[in-house]
């Protein structure tokens, strides 16, 4: 969708849209990453005064293909309901950037990319990352693209953690932040679910302390179990009941009335989860799952500010919009409200809406006209200011 | 605690309190189990008119040691807060029976016991069980003990599934049923969590389709992950936050202020979960975990009654008491209320209390004076009737 006549075009950046920056990028863990590879997609054209750039931040298992076909799965962009022609984030008006977070596995630096010191994949020698490190890498990309200030940063779930971190780390580089179904810190329960997933991966003998790249015999079983456990947290109890209830299925996947009294996937919810686990393995790296979940667990925006969240936002001139979903038990509304309270205490401009949805945390990725209207209204209000 | 002068004493049943009945016990899956081994504990003395027998039903990973020391862990009885001298269920007044459910691994017939057809452990050739099958095995034990009618049946969690099933399966054999932190059916979310646990076990290469008894090289990693995932559901989000929050610890397990930026158990919740997983492996059999979770998933008391729960209770003369906990998200109050509605529709005598606790599902096993008062009052009301 990028126009070839603009200064930023497909031609300039090549088709794979992957840059290698020299770095070093200083990381929160004390190490520095060099070089820094960033794979990204853009949609639309940067305008002359460079004022129309919107950064979209992806979630744990997301990627840069926010509004274009995923090269492995062939599925449409993961947020094409929000991003696209005629949508609230529109490439005919906005210059849209979405970058694979560092630590991930779709082209940006991560455990599967090459450690220049050894010429081999990093594996578990890749430095431990934080959400702030991911944001700093995005800022490097914006430098490279010549974008001084973002019109807006938008993210859901882990993308929301990045979006809320942007104005804290770069107060002068972002005019508006949209934080959806997210949180300013990971709770004990959030950490617990991630720990189960990591233990499942590390318990898989094929994990081999992360050194499985040479023969490609990946810890698929462990990663699938991790994905299954996580997937439960993405859905609401009511949504699960509505979608699956206690319905049984026969071996072909159809509804049926009799249970097998065995360990096959009698219940539809079982085969759904198994499918989620197995299909995930084809598109995601187990080590990346370890690194990104760990970064999320470390996330606590208040921590570097004496534990007072409001201090993180003091003096901010960014406009904020927070959206939560009433059935989201992963990052419940109370967490968004906590952010709103802190923003209010810091004197920030903030709007907040809790939307009703039966679909739990996943709601932000699904058809939600109300969410689209709010995002559109919030972005347009900024354009008119 | 059993008196040697009574007709039912330690002397009569031997110290290990394990009986082998000829059977066959017809099972819901269509198979029949023979012989039927039942390991159990009793406390107190059966009175002359055999009217003081109380059956306690244990939960998924529980056992018969309700009020006496566990032979493997050395820990005190799992419900000694409720059962014991001066407690609501008192061996100086009641004859208390607790039997290891069939399918389990503390002496009753299960995948680790010997298949008479082969002389080897059953493994996955053990027939798939239901909650009703467990109850029918308990009825066999009562026959053997010469107890025609139970004064009461009491159970929490999966024990509550048995307790609520007792009056349905044996309407003339139980005067009162106490159902705590339980449900009349497993929800899609309940099934989903169990499925993750089973997949973790079956993904462990040491599981070997359940045939790991010969060399004792058990699927410990998979079982530990299963336990960790389940354990999250036993605790409330608020309880986890209160107990662990985002607190870090050093390698010795003490509180500390700095994170390691690694994959060690930085957070206290991580090491707690890992400990839960590892210690569970010492006392529980992975195949038993598969069979018992499956029995729970199949549990739907309304299903054999055209899906109408009230029909299950029609004509009942049993008195019921239901207790739920407000932070229990595994079997939330709504599930208890559903049972109460059905009992009301069936004209049954039922009382119901939702208790407040920060501890989620686990609350029924913890110190809870209010629960004790309710149990005591309910049992005494029956004695006075």
Automatic annotation (TrEMBL), chains A, B:
Cellular localization per UniProt: Cytoplasm
Keywords of the record: Acyltransferase, Amino-acid biosynthesis, Cytoplasm, Methionine biosynthesis, Transferase
Catalyzed reaction equations: L-homoserine + acetyl-CoA = O-acetyl-L-homoserine + CoA
Gene Ontology terms, MF aspect: homoserine O-acetyltransferase activity
Annotated Gene3D superfamilies: alpha/beta hydrolase
Keyword rRNA processing in annotation: no
Primary localisation category: cytoplasm
Keyword Iron attributed: no
Active site: 157, 328, 361
Ranges where the AB hydrolase-1 domain occurs: 52-365
GO CC list: cytoplasm
GO biological process: homoserine metabolic process; methionine biosynthetic process
Pathway connected to this protein: Amino-acid biosynthesis; L-methionine biosynthesis via de novo pathway; O-acetyl-L-homoserine from L-homoserine: step 1/1
Domain of life: Bacteria
EC number: 2.3.1.31
InterPro entries named in the record: AB_hydrolase_1 (IPR000073), AB_hydrolase_fold (IPR029058), HAT_MetX-like (IPR008220)
Binding site for substrate: 227, 362
Summary of subunit composition and partner proteins: Homodimer.
Function: Transfers an acetyl group from acetyl-CoA to L-homoserine, forming acetyl-L-homoserine.
Family to which the UniProt record says this protein belongs: Belongs to the AB hydrolase superfamily. MetX family.
HAMAP family given in the database record: MetX_acyltransf (MF_00296)
Protein name: Homoserine O-acetyltransferase
């Amino acid at each position: 969708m990028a126009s070839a006549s603009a200064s930023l075009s497909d031609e300039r950046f090549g088709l794979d849209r992957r840059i290698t920056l020299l770095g070093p990028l200083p990381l929160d863990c004390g190490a520095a990453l060099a070089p820094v590879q960033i794979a990204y997609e853009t949609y639309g054209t940067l305008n002359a005064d460079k004022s129309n750039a919107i950064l979209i931040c992806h979630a744990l298992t997301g990627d840069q293909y926010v509004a274009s076909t995923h090269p492995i799965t062939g599925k449409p962009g993961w947020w094409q309901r929000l991003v696209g022609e005629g949508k609230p984030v529109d490439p005919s008006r906005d210059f849209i950037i979405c970058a694979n977070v560092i630590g991930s596995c779709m082209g940006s630096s991560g455990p599967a990319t090459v450690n220049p010191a050894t010429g081999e994949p990093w594996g578990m020698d890749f430095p431990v990352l934080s959400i702030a490190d991911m944001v700093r890498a995005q800022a490097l990309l914006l430098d490279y693209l010549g974008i001084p200030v973002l019109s807006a940063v938008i993210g859901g779930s882990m993308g929301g953690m990045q979006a809320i971190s942007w104005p804290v780390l770069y107060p002068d580089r972002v005019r508006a932040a949209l934080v959806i179904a997210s949180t300013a810190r990971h709770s004990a329960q959030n950490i617990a679910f991630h720990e189960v997933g990591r233990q499942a991966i590390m318990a898989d003998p094929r994990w081999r302390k992360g050194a499985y790249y040479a023969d490609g015999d990946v810890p698929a079983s462990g990663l699938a179990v991790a994905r299954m456990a996580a997937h439960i947290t993405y859905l609401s109890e009511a949504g699960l009941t509505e979608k699956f209830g206690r319905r049984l299925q026969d071996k072909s996947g159809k509804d049926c009335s009799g249970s097998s009294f065995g360990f096959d996937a009698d219940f539809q919810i079982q085969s759904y989860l198994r499918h989620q686990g197995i299909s995930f393995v084809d598109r995601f790296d187990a080590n990346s799952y370890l690194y990104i979940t760990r970064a999320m667990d470390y996330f606590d925006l208040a921590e570097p500010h004496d534990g007072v969240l409001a201090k993180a936002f003091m003096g901010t001139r960014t406009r904020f919009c927070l959206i939560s979903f009433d059935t989201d038990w992963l990052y419940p509304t109370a967490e968004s409200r906590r952010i709103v309270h802190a923003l209010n205490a810091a004197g920030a401009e903030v709007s907040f809406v809790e939307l009703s949805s039966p679909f739990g945390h996943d709601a932000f990725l699904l058809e939600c006209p109300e969410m689209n209207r709010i995002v559109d209204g919030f972005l347009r209000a900024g354009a008119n200011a």
